[in-house]
Amino acid sequence: MEDKYEKLEKVGEGTYGKVYKAKDKATGQLVALKKTRLEMDEEGVPPTALREISLLQMLSHSLYIVRLLSVEHVGHSNSALVDPNCDIKDQKKKKPSLYLVFEYLDTDLKKYIDSHRKGANPRPLPNSLVQSFLFQLCKGVAHCHSHGVLHRDLKPQNLLVDKEKGILKIADLGLGRAFTVPLKSYTHEIVTLWYRAPEVLLGTTHYSTAVDMWSVGCIFAEMARRQALFPGDSEFQQLLHIFRLLGTPSENLWPGVSSMRDWHVYPRWEPQNLARAVPSLDADGVDLLSKMLKYDPGDRISAKAAMDHSYFDSLDKSQF
Ligand code: Z3R
Hints:
Layout (H helix, E strand, L loop, with lengths): L4 E10 L2 E8 L5 E8 L9 H13 L8 E7 L2 H6 L5 H6 L3 E7 L3 E2 H9 L9 H20 L12 E4 L4 E4 L27 H4 L8 H16 L9 H12 L27 H4 L5 H10 L10 H5 L13
Antiparallel strand pairs: 1-2, 2-3, 3-5, 4-5, 6-7, 7-8
Helix pairs in contact: 5-7, 7-10
This protein binds 4-(1,3-benzothiazol-2-yl)thiophene-2-sulfonamide (Z3R).
The site of 4-(1,3-benzothiazol-2-yl)thiophene-2-sulfonamide has 15 residues, from β1, β3 and β6.
């Protein structure tokens, strides 16, 4: 790996691994390197990792999903056979690992929003950019969903932004379906709950595409506000944030809610006016947001339907 890529700084610590900025020594191209640990007792790549890679390869043909450029399997005994500089005795000692090589984009949506909120030049994100980023996000999510893949951990940190071109791409298509979303990352970093759907917080085990659309709604509101909509610091607090704004869900609004695994008795809050929480959004924007933040996952708008919402009528869709 060291021969092929010059490792530069760490750019992200995803839930599932560290990501480094690196330079391809042969071409000078900047890339993002993600090391995937291979938990296994013998040689070879576990089938779960192979499934993930083929999924990523398939999905990354969309413009709105970060492109997987190559996969490098290093430290396994075969690499000694193909690499004349590789000492077989050394290679036997090394743990095999898999490097996923992605295209590099210069920032993520969290940093991008922060740069508009603080520092020398605080300013709103232009409404036309919020609209364009949301459309691109819905397009990427619709692409995943049409291939039967849920992201399940959409958040501003794993949406990459090309500032010059105004492009947004989904990254960290995690380990889509294979694993549950953990509370701590593998490096013990606390995983954010701010974008987590209420059915997940209440202990649903049957996830649907609607969990991603809840996250999209939270991200939409955050772009408009430059501040998170539901910044909870525990699963309980996260639910209280949601209930205080949208009203405590009832059996009427969300049949079956009170028999969910982690349901408790909560204060009974009335729904607040959503428009007041996102003052920069017009009526169409608030309507679309309200459809993304429906309690009942079956009532929540799909990514495909969201793209046809009147909020996007003023967007020139031909550029996408
Ligand atoms: C693929 C998977 C995860 C990431 C990729 C590519 N690129 C990332 S995270 C990234 C993060 C930044 S720049 C590129 S940051 O400096 O804005 N955190």
